């Protein structure tokens, strides 16, 4: 999740400085509200560049998510599924055995921080796979021409996961401060409800273009979700692959228990600039851990906002 903590400032239009600003997590994370979403200046610069210059190909796949919602897992599953002809999941030399899932897929926010991005994007093999935390509006109009796979997570678990992640940077950070910021909407890429609803509505309007997955469903039925993912990206599993157990190989390769102890996921930092260990991406990997950390009042507060924001949208948690 370099997008959560990237410190590098970028060139922005002058009027950007006049946008409403806030400080997320009761601390030094300064963000501004750009087109309805809270972004650091680094992320706003990427959003501006993406809106101006992002021109994906028809067969590109963008993996999108709000931070701490299953990005790392979906990156691994999408990469293992799409690259399975070049890299069979059961292969002892599979890239996911020596690289962190985020190293296998370029992160749009980082690609679009400089004009060198086009060259890097063009160098990717087709169909290209990319990752972003941007709200849908920030990757449009480009993303309108390709396919997007979104993963959504139950908000209380997302908040607890976010709190644990941020404590690698600020050990004294209180869960209450993270919850306050999430509830106010003013967190990087937030408000989370608007982030989720943007992709949810697009998945209903254009199910051929946006696949909406849920972290809890991935946990319940990983193989079924991998089959759906493969169909959606236009690479369904053949009968021969099904018989050979390719789906199970992919699920096993990308499972929490398998990925977490690998050297690429348990040593080193996420980004040379960001002092967060890679192991922060693999904490517990379950549903319902919020109950071990939130008071009933905290849970009720978030549940009430979520019920209100998702009322009559067809999406329930
Ligand atoms: P927890 O903090 O609740 O354990 P993201 O990848 O979007 O940053 O989300 C991180 C969350 O996904 C963390 O949740 C992490 O443990 C979990 N996660 C990472 N890899 C996973 C995997 N292969 N299977 C299941 N969950 C995984």
From TrEMBL:
E.C. no: 2.8.2.-
In Gene Ontology terms, what is a biological process of this protein? sulfation
Q: Which domain of life is it from?
A: Eukaryota
Quick one: a GO cellular component term?
cytoplasm
Domain Sulfotransferase: from-to ranges: 59-314
For this UniProt record, the keywords arranged alphabetically read as follows: Transferase
Q: Which GO terms describe its molecular function?
A: sulfotransferase activity
Instruction: Report the top EC class in one word.
Output: transferase
For this protein, the record's Gene3D superfamilies field holds: P-loop containing nucleotide triphosphate hydrolases (3.40.50.300)
The protein's matches in InterPro entries, at most eight in alphabetical order, are given as: P-loop_NTPase (IPR027417), Sulfotransferase_dom (IPR000863)
The entry sums up its family as follows: Belongs to the sulfotransferase 1 family.
Identification of the protein by name: Sulfotransferase
Source species of the chain: Triticum aestivum
């Amino acid at each position: 999740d370099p997008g959560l903590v990237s410190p590098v400032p970028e060139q922005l239009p002058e009027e950007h400085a006049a946008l409403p600003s806030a400080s997320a997590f009761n601390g030094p994370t300064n963000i501004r509200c750009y087109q309805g979403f809270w972004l650091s200046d680094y992320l706003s610069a990427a959003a501006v560049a993406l809106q101006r210059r992002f021109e994906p190909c028809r067969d590109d796949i963008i993996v999108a998510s709000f931070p701490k919602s299953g990005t790392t897992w979906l990156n691994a599953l999408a990469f293992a599924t799409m690259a399975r002809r070049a890299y069979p999941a059961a292969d002892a030399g599979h890239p996911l055995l020596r690289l962190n899932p985020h190293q296998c897929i370029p992160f749009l926010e980082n690609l679009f921080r400089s004009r060198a991005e086009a060259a890097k994007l063009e160098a990717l093999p087709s169909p290209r796979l990319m990752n972003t935390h941007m709200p849908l509006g920030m990757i449009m109009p480009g993303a309108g021409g390709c396919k997007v796979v979104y993963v959504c997570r139950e908000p209380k678990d997302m908040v607890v996961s976010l709190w644990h992640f941020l404590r690698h940077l600020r050990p004294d950070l209180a869960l209450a401060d993270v919850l306050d910021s999430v509830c106010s909407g003013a967190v990087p890429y937030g408000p989370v409800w608007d982030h989720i609803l943007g992709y949810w509505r697009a998945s209903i309007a254009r199910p051929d273009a946006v696949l909406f997955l849920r972290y809890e469903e991935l946990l319940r039925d990983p193989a079924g979700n991998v089959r759906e993912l493969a169909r959606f990206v236009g690479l369904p599993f053949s009968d021969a692959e099904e018989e050979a157990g390719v789906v199970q190989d992919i699920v096993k390769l990308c499972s929490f228990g398998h990925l977490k102890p690998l050297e690429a996921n348990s040593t080193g930092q996420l980004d040379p600039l960001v002092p967060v260990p890679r192991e922060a991406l693999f904490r517990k990997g379950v549903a319902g851990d919020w109950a071990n950390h939130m008071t009933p009042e905290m849970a009720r507060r978030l549940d009430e906002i979520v019920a209100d924001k998702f009322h009559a949208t067809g999406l329930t948690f």
